[in-house]
Amino acid sequence: MARKIIVSNRLPIKVKKGAEGGMTFEPSEGGLATGLGSVYKEGQNLWIGWPGLFLQDEEEEQIVTQELEHESMLPVFLTETEIKEFYEGFSNETLWPTFHYFSQYAVYEQDYWDAYVNVNQKFCDQIVKSSNPGDTIWIHDYQLLLLPSMVREALPDINIGFFQHIPFSSYEVFRLLPWRKAILKGMLGADLIGFHTYDDVRHFVSSVTHIVGYPASQGLIETGNRNVMVDAFPMGIDYEKYAQLASSDKVKSIAAEFRKALNKRKIILSIDRLDYSKGIPQRLRAFELFLKERPDFYEKVTLIMIVVPSRDQVEKYKELKVEIDEIVGRINSAYRTITWAPVQYYYHAFPLEELSAFYSLADVALVTPMRDGMNLVCKEYIASRTDGTGILILSEMAGAAKELSEAILINPNDVNQIAEALFQSLTTPEAEQKPHMTIMQETVRKYDIHHWVKIFMDRLAYIKEMQQSLKTSLLTDGKQKQLEQAYAEATSRLIFLDYDGTLMGFSSDPQKAQPDTELLDTLTRLAADKKNRVVIISGRDHTTLGSWLGHLPIDMIAEHGVWLQKHETSWEMIQNLKNDWKEDIRPILETYVNRTPGALLEEKDYALVWHFRKVDLGLGETRAGELSSHLSYLVANRNLQIMEGDKIVEIKNIEVNKGVAASRWLEEYPSQFVVAIGDDRTDEDTFQVMPENAYTIKVGSTRSRARFHLKTFKEVRELLKNLNNLQE
Ligand code: GDG
Rounded to whole angstroms, what are the CA distances from 418 to 100, 326, 368, 395, 424? Predict the structure, then answer.
């Protein structure tokens, strides 16, 4: 039976060695563990990850493995050196700062990278050992970026989803990483790649097109043999759990106790792991400014600041801790009274019930990260406000800001703005707070963690289906033999061949792609067989095509089907077409040529083509998109179509395409053996009209209507040479 396997760096369990040598196992309650609980605990499903402790020998490992098996978990054991280099090193000192726009903190250390590769491989080995074809593997986060392609290589057909919980930085920052290409290729082993926000999606796609060079459109990246889908899946929380907890008797009694100790003061709450991405010093400075400017709030407001210890062995985190201690000390020593400390600072974690009590007591949640993938604290605050009051001050740089527009959104660097937001929120009457809080509660309740898991899994199933429906199979030696046999047995044959990219490689100047001797020789021999009718079916203009191939006994279809020539006759137009539209469209294309260095305008008899093969990567694609949308309303009533091909935008008559033209040959020369070979999107029209038993072959990609694929034009030439050899 197909299973689902969740993979993350840490397993959702705390395993500890007791003093007596025994071990304790305590499930952790993180949002991810709750959300995915419905997945990994079912049937034979599994969660694979590091159990969080170092073990001495295999015996201990066996005990842990057996114990975890009851919890549907499978451990990957890591050594202290691996954790130091792979986790603290590459993951937290290289990737974390890079993805959070702190690249000045990033360490580029070859040993860290080597450890990262090895540990990813260890995870891969465990997955390969414990999975079967048809299983779905869902890999989580930045510690395992290479894992998708490692698994893909070992298990080519398996379903792989990947989700990154932290931001994906802009290409300009990501490109600084020495291992950038390997990282992207690692991620692209997945079928579906998810991020919290659309901005992360854009940054990732732009890094892929610039660094790896794969084309992408509408959230699909063409890797050659698979389409990878990239999309935004904003993660939610277990809303009901937080709402119920806040109304529980236990939490209410804790809250009452806390309230007594805090008197009637207003509460501002701040909760984070110790991290420079969370903007803790900036937040404190803003509160300091607020106190300085608003003496009327003395003794009336308390900032409860919970900082959960994290990564405090890393130098930058140690420095941050010192900085926070200093600012808190400065504020409290300047403003405190015998009964009031403006900042109540805790450097430790609290049990969930106490956390919930803080959420229900807080008049204001102050969440001001410099960067945050999503930020769950603000969503937990919203879910805990069972009476509908409360104000959220939220950084624009948190993924959550995209969903929670009813919060007071601030720039975390702008201390004046934060101080002002504090004043505003502490003076807003409850009746005015409620409408905003209610809207946010509706959003957070609807898009909860269960919804998130479901839509991710649904999307993964969808892309898998899409891949299957467009999947061609490789023209293997065995299949090629069948093709050759069918060819040999047939007494009449029709052979459709696209030109650029199918018979010839691409050249940056389209006029330089004239046929070489090898190609001319191959085509001559193919056409010499009386049983064959060879048709070159190209987007090129008929003059060029005629001058290059007109001397051979072959037929030609030019300009994607506008011009037709049987070798016994001369060029004719498929139907009477108009080209008076060119006068209006040409000036627009010329503007885009002038604005885009490297772009060319090609004029065909009944088409205009804007080429961008020589344009700076990225700029060309952007301009092509602009041009298409600029033209779209102009072509609407003119029987024209805009076609985006391989580094071109072509405008031509809507009724003409390669398929319509090829149909004429199919009707006029019904043949026992039909083959059509092409590499471009326009060749899909040819494939579509071919009879079912025809051999349709896509070149360079596996995503096509064609039945088979070959990798390069060189393989096409080899195939044709083989067919020629059969004749002799
Ligand atoms: C990463 C991304 C993204 C905090 N203090 C205590 C405590 N917590 C819990 C909170 C919350 C979690 O820790 C923190 O989650 P965040 O989302 O705020 O931040 P990261 O840990 O950095 O998480 C982030 C997330 O992944 C999910 O994709 O949102 O952007 O950086 O659940 O409640 N829990 C307890 N005591 C505490 O004192 N029990």
Answer: 21, 20, 9, 9, 10
